[in-house]
TrEMBL record:
Membrane topology: Multi-pass membrane protein
CC annotations in GO: plasma membrane
Family: Belongs to the polysaccharide synthase family.
Subcellular location: Cell membrane
One Pfam assignment: Polysacc_synt_3
PANTHER family named among the record's database cross-references: LIPOPOLYSACCHARIDE BIOSYNTHESIS PROTEIN WZXC, PST FAMILY PREDICTED COLANIC ACID TRANSPORTER
InterPro entries: Poly_Biosynth_Transport
Coiled coil: none
Protein name as annotated: Lipopolysaccharide biosynthesis protein
Primary location group: membrane
Superkingdom assignment: Bacteria
UniProtKB keywords: Cell membrane, Membrane, Transmembrane, Transmembrane helix
Residue intervals passing through the bilayer: 21-37, 43-67, 79-108, 114-135, 147-166, 172-190, 295-319, 325-345, 357-378, 384-404, 416-436
Length: 437
């Protein structure tokens, strides 16, 4: 019998560990926003969009596939680790070689100077894939949080210290590789105290074969999800410049913090717990319905708070040089309730072994979001683009849960939507207020 207490206990452990990391993340943002200008942040953000794409190719769905495994031979574990190291090295060299192409694409001066820093970060990220998945499988959230906590402190201190002696652009860019290296060394060390053990470089690359079906769908989802989540940054940077991108990126980052504090702290716990009950969809649905209902209430409260206090939040978190972020964050905050709920859906699809549906839903989501972004870019208006993105998130909420309820839980969707009415009321109120004033 699947008890919801099991999920909530795992979520609680994940949240406690992650909140310490988010606290130092927020502190880091507040410090760095007062040292570096929106233009410097915009230049780094422009390259980080492509860094995320290369991360996606390096990970290729391996993490969730390993979490679902019941056993893993040491030879296979080392082979997978060796494979990720090799792929990471190749991708890092390829990323570094693309520096002239990034400069040609964006036409933002000096953007090529920070590419080597990001290439080093990519190498360490790739090395971290296998040990991190092993820790997640065993719900070792505190150990993962300790690694992230140490990485944020070390990387922020490095950026602040270097800013006193070298060019600000290079100082901020150096934060990435220091963070990635610190996380890898901690995660790799901690993985030694797990069932699968600490991975060492191996040559049995064929160990990937049994995982290909799952990783194929997962990679496909990640690939299309990348464009729906990052095309806005790419196009804003290209057509509106580094300053506009810096402001938009910071607004989006602020909007994501409630999700970081709520669902991103919870989602690592979902797949490891739910996967054990994948054969009982009705029981999983009952837990899911209860879980997301509570989440919708908290998400609605967080969205409303950010909507009402947008000006104070921007001044407190970023400072007076970021005032143009206020109208952007006010609009994006309307999407927080559905985003909070929607960001947990992937964990349930994965745990129920329906990566195929996750891929299909992600494909439809990408089409809707990309269309919204393109319309906004064509109109050269960031605020209008934000409205279109908010609408796209709500459309994607309906299609994702349609597939989950009709294809996974085999239950009509309307029974679930009734539980979302309180959050929907808050969202409607924010939209009405925005249009009225």
């Amino acid at each position: 019998m699947f008890k919801s207490d099991n999920l909530y206990k795992a979520i609680f452990k994940s949240m406690i560990g992650r909140y310490s990391v988010y606290a130092v993340n927020i502190s880091s943002m507040m410090i760095l926003a007062r040292i570096f200008t929106p233009e410097v942040f915009g230049i780094v953000a422009a390259i980080m969009v492509f860094f995320i794409f290369f991360q996606l190719m390096a990970e290729a769905g391996l993490g969730p596939a390993i979490i679902n495994l019941d056993c893993l031979l040491s030879e296979d574990r080392n082979g997978l680790f060796g494979l990720t190291l090799t792929v990471g090295l190749v991708l890092s060299l390829g990323f570094a070689a693309l520096a002239p192409a990034f400069l040609l694409f964006y036409k933002i001066p000096r953007i090529d100077e920070i590419v080597p820093y990001i290439a080093i970060s990519l190498m360490f990220f790739s090395a971290c894939i296998i040990p991190n998945a092993i820790l997640l499988r065993e719900q070792a959230f505190f150990r993962i949080a300790n690694a992230s906590f140490a990485a944020e402190i070390c990387s922020t201190a490095t950026a602040v210290g270097l800013a006193q002696f070298i060019d600000p652009l290079h100082a901020l860019a150096a934060k990435g590789p220091v963070s990635a290296a610190t996380i890898f060394f901690f995660i790799w060390y901690f993985s030694g105290k797990t069932e699968f053990g600490r991975p060492m470089p191996g040559h049995k690359f064929s160990a990937i074969k049994p995982l290909l079906r799952f990783t194929g769908y997962q990679f496909g989802f990640n690939f299309i999800n990348y464009f729906s989540r990052n095309l806005d940054n790419i196009l804003v940077g290209k057509y509106m410049g580094a300053i506009a991108l810096g402001s938009y990126d910071k607004a989006y980052q602020l909007m994501r913090y409630p999700m970081l504090l709520l669902t991103f702290a919870m989602t690592p716990a979902i797949q490891p717990v739910i996967r054990k009950h994948a054969g009982n969809p009705r029981e999983v649905e009952a837990v899911h319905r209860d879980f997301t209902f509570k989440l919708s209430l908290v998400g609605a409260a967080a969205g409303l708070a950010m909507f009402v206090f947008a000006d104070s939040i921007v001044l407190l978190m970023l400072g007076s040089q970021w005032l143009n972020v206020i109208p952007i964050i006010s609009i994006l905050s309307i999407a927080i309730p559905v985003q909070v709920i929607l960001s947990t859906s992937g964990g349930f699809f994965q745990a129920m072994n329906r990566a195929d549906l996750l891929f299909l839903s992600g494909l439809l989501s990408a089409i809707v979001v990309v269309g919204a972004i393109l319309i906004g870019i064509i109109q050269r208006d960031i605020e209008l683009m934000c409205w279109y993105i908010v609408a796209a998130f709500h459309i994607n909420f309906f299609q994702a849960y349609y597939y989950m309820y009709r294809k996974v839980f085999i239950i009509p969707l309307h029974k679930y939507l009734v539980k979302m009415l309180p959050a929907a009321t808050v969202i409607s109120g924010m939209v009405f207020w925005s249009w009225l004033f």
